[in-house]
């Protein structure tokens, strides 16, 4: 994709307005917002409209750039931040806290930033029983699994969930994708190094034991495995009449 220079604020506002109508404001974040982008970097924006029927996300190309746009109004964006927080995440809150408000800050953009900072300053809820249950189940499966390919798949799933639990158990918000790796590395380089060595042994020596030990270490910090029992209540709204 060929581009000439970084995306200007004017280009972003013109592109957003042409596609969605005039926004209340735009949160511009990511590598391009802070001069670290290159030709293939996405233009990351949260488009805040006065009112939407529902929030959505889409990618599209315009002006030689790939846009990654999340479209909301203030209420749907606030709901996304609070819903993430309830599940131990703060992805939207971090984006909003970092973002530039275009064309300029408003009372509403400042209020949303205040909410984001309030969330980031608080500790995530200590709800890790679901994760403990899943990790315990994978450890049990790995003990019995004889298929080498299945064991490798289970072990990598175990790796990601162990990093997740490691962050949560230390009062940190969880992350997704490469940000999960980045956050654990920044928080405890020694632990991350041991986890990476365990991954290397999985691929080079075909053994999942080191990763299983890492997982048990994470579980022990929050009460151990959950073989004795577990219950998860589903929402009362989870109901659909048969035709």
Question: What are the SSEs and their pairings?
Answer:
Blueprint lengths: L8 H12 L4 E5 L13 E6 L7 E7 L2 E8 L1 H13 L4 H8 L1 E3 L4 H15 L7 H16 L3 H22 L8 H10 L1 H17 L3 H12 L23
Parallel strand pairs: 2-4
Antiparallel strand pairs: 1-2, 1-5, 3-4
What would your notes on this structure say?
The protein has 9 helices and 5 strands, in the order αββββααβαααααα. The chain folds into 2 domains: 9-121, Beta Polymerase, domain 2 (2-Layer Sandwich); 129-220, no CATH class. The chain starts with 8 loop residues before the first helix and ends in a 23-residue tail after the last helix. It has a 5-stranded mixed β-sheet with strand order 3-4-2-1-5, with helices on both faces. The mean pLDDT is 92. α6 (148-169) packs parallel to α9. The chain is an alpha+beta fold and 243 residues long. Helix content is 51%, strand content 12%. It has helices at 9-20, 74-86, 91-98, 107-121, 129-144, 148-169, 178-187, 189-205, 209-220, and strands spanning 25-29, 43-48, 56-62, 65-72, 100-102.
